Every structure is written in C-alpha cells, then in structure tokens.
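not sure who needs this but someone in the group chat was asking about ABC transporter permease from Amycolatopsis halotolerans so here u go. i didnt clean anything up, its just raw.
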Amino acid sequence: MSPDSKPRGTARISADWAAVLVAAVLVALAAFGVLPTIPFLVK
C-alpha cells in the first residue's frame, strides 16, 4: 500500500461513516413521511 492510501485528518470520512450517514438520512426521510410507501408491505 502506498502512504497516500491512509486518510488524512477529519475532513475525509471512511466508507463506513458514509453508509451510516446515508442510512440516517433515509430513516429521517421515512420518519417524516417524505418517502413514498410500498402498498404491499404496509398492513
């Protein structure tokens, strides 16, 4: 591995944190009813 492959500082986030952020946004949008519902999954 090259020395450039390590993240520098807090400006860069790992893929794990990016996934957590995307999931949190989707959960928040679903909680506020912004996302459309899937009729056959809702009872």
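also The mean pLDDT is 79. if thats useful
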